[in-house]
Each structure stands twice: as structure tokens, then as C-alpha cells.
Amino acid sequence: MATGEVERSAELHIDADEPPDPLLEATNDLAKALRANVATWMTTLDRIDQFRADRAAGVGYREMVAREADPTVILKLAEGQERLAIAGARFRRAVVRMMLDAGVSQAQIAKRFGVSRQRVAALLSEDPQPSPGTGRETAEL
Question: What is the mean pLDDT of the chain?
Fold first, then answer.
């Protein structure tokens, strides 16, 4: 990946006179989440490399933990997983709606996604907001 590639715009815009495009919006959100995760993973990998170098040099775990900067590697991993889960669920929901609008049946969508038809129906009826206390969306395929 070329330097600066992560920072490039993840947004694709449609004409302001056009109606909203939920799939394009969800795709933009997914691209943004993926790029944010790449940046997070790169800095996390640097921290992991330092951790391994310190350990190879005989630095004790207590000392390494005491000097680890916040947020910790574990917190950064959880943040990335949550970001991707939310954007991915929104993207899947938009794809399913687009497929239904195009005349694809719930049974065909379920087969393509590897889930039950009932799961497709539930996905369409679920609120895409994060679950209370978890920050994660309730609807996932």
C-alpha cells in the first residue's frame, strides 16, 4: 500500500438532486471503517513489534505493561472489530434491500448469503441501531 493511501477519501457522492442511495451510503461507511481499521492495525502492529523486541531483550511483562500507552492493543482491537461490525451490518442490510428491490426473493438472498430465509426477514425488520450497552448493531448476517 502506498504512503497516504489510507488517508484518501472514502466518500463517493451522488448528485444532490438525486434521491438518497442507501447502498452507496453504506458502501462509503464500510470503506471508511476499513480504512480506519488499516490505520489502527498498522499502529497496533508497530506496538506489537516493540513488545516482541522488548521481550526478546529480556524486559519483564510488568515493566512492559506499566509503560504501555493508552489505548492498549486490546482496546484498539476491540474498537476495530466494533467499527467493522457496525459498518458491515449496515452494508449487508443495504445489499439485501437492494436485492429485494431488484426482484430477488428472500429465499434466493438467504442461499447466496448462507443463512436462512427467516434470518433475511429478521435482518430487514431489525433496528440498525447499536444494542444498549454494547455499541454493536443487533442485526448481522
Answer: 82
| Share above pLDDT 70 across residues of the chain, in percent, rounded to a whole number | 77
Backbone torsions φ then ψ of 137, nearest 5 degrees: -70, 150
Q: What is the pLDDT of residues 71-106, one digit of tens each?
A: 788 899 999 999 999 999 999 999 999 999 999 999
Nearest Cα residue to 26 out of 112, 93, 79? 93
The rounded distance, in Å, linking the Cα atoms of 32 and 38 is: 10
Contact by Cβ (8 Å): 71, 79: yes
For range 18-30, the mean pLDDT:
91
Who's near 23: CB < 8 A, 6+ residues apart? 94, 95, 97, 98
Q: Judge whether 92 and 27 are in contact, CB under 8 Å.
A: no
Cell numbers standing for residue 53: 523486541
pTM for this model (two decimals): 0.70
Q: Which whole-number Å values give the CA distances from 4 to 11, 29, 32, in the listed order?
A: 16, 19, 14
